From TrEMBL:
Family designation: Belongs to the protein kinase superfamily. ADCK protein kinase family.
Name the record gives this protein: AarF/ABC1/UbiB kinase family protein
Transmembrane feature ranges: 490-509, 521-543
A Pfam family it matches: ABC1
Species per Swiss-Prot/TrEMBL record: Pyxidicoccus parkwayensis
Entry keyword annotation includes Kinase: yes
Keywords: Kinase, Membrane, Transferase, Transmembrane, Transmembrane helix
Domain Protein kinase: 121-450
GO molecular function: kinase activity
PANTHER family found in the cross-reference section: CHAPERONE-ACTIVITY OF BC1 COMPLEX CABC1 -RELATED, PROTEIN ACTIVITY OF BC1 COMPLEX KINASE 7, CHLOROPLASTIC
Amino acid sequence: MILQDLNRVRQISVIAARHGFGELAERAGLWRMLGRKEKVEVSPETRRASTARRFRMLLSDLGPTFIKLGQVLSTRADLLPAEFIDELSLLQDHVVPIPLEQVHAQIRESLGKEAKELFAHIDEAPLAAASIAQVHKAVTLEGEEVVVKVQRPGIAASIDSDLGVLRSLARLLEAVVEETGVYTPTGIIDEFDRAIHEELDFLNEADNVRAFLENHRDRPYLHIPRVYAHLSSRTVLTLEFIRGVKINQAQLAEEDRKVIAKHVLEASFRQLFEDGLFHGDPHPGNILLLEGNRLALLDFGVVGRLTRPMQETLVMLCLAVALKDSDSVARILYRVGVPDARANLVGFRNDIEAILGQHLATTLGQVDTRSLLRDLLDLAVKYRIRIPKEYALLSRASVSTEGMLRSLYPEMNIIEVALPYAKELLAGRYDPSQLQGGLMRTLLRFQSMAADLPTQLSQILLDMESGKFTVTVRADQFEKLNENIRSASVIAFLGLCACGFIVGAFIAFAPKPWMYGGVPVLGVAGIALAAALFGAVFTWYLFGGRGLGKVRLSRFIKKQQKRR
């Protein structure tokens, strides 16, 4: 580490000790690395706080990069336990806005022109200021009202510097922290690295906005802002300004609440099961209420994408949960996940059965989706099943949506309202008239299997009757043993041949008195010939022999690289 990194490590260590994580810093060897141990007092209030709360306070004190780390982790219920997710969801950016002169400088550097050549006016006071960017209301040269999102100068370099320190700390922690989840500390940092660099590139967000605009073009109850491509870049994003009221601040009549709640629910269903593209953070601050009970979505930095197989799996999972089919829920989660090792499927199913019995003891309309999803994800982490991040993001989005629906219309029966959408979805997905329907594909596969099955069974019975039926058992260990024995045999054979040539050469040329400097020339020539023949055969064995030698050579090179 360079001196600057060591100073940052010392700062992190002191702040970590102040929040009650000094023992962890000691075990990781940070004080030893720094050459001394700091005496840091821990307040009684901090000692009484939970580990999750102290972790959240630690990230808040460490600055923008660590706050962003906590915000990213709060969307990943597959990485951390539920209590940590709940605490990290409370993290907010508390940053001083950058002056308007720096905003103009960033626009000039990013778009290649002075701000006054691109905008007729930019408000001095920002609409919002966060650790990565701040947003200003502006007017284009054509007189259109827009919002300009400008990245903070130097934030990318600062994050990259902190990421280097985080990786070093993660490697140290891996040696002292008992691994309880499916991700190691370095794995979590790698996930954060990918997420933060996607967010730092505003062109990704611009692509997300365009995709949402296209998907919702024929849905009049939902409005998506337009992207101004000529006023956007990797560090500047210009969008249409939308006048509206945040949905949680609007004064609404009961009938309006019903209509808006149905719009929220329909938009969610369409995003999940038709578009395959959903808003990853649909909290009330990101939804505006427009005239005519229309809705507008904001902030497309975090979105989730579902493929067609993932959508079908999601449908089956919802049905299995609704039917309290713990066996199907266990198998679906096991299939979509990536187990680190062979999981105890029986224990996994039994635990799921207990969770479903606990949460589905009442009617479906009274189910606490937040607790149910959290417990299922925690259970997957317990059994070391790595659930794809899209499902974890969907879990967070579903919780936010459900909370918003209950606040808008507490008496709403979500299952009753969602039933028509579910029927429409299933009818479209399994309609035999649709060649792309899941039912048609399933029937075609079953028909093909049913047609081939009698022939294959007859072949097996005939082979057994004639004594031609054989069973081949393959195992990696047996393959390696067989290869090692074959290699040893070839080497032994080549060695015997070489010895035979050498001895034969001396016997054959011993009677010949042709000497040079006291050395029998013909004997030496025979030895050289034997060595050349041995080398040629061995070279053929390495690089020929139906490719077996190439495999051995590549394995040898890999072993040498690992040793280095």
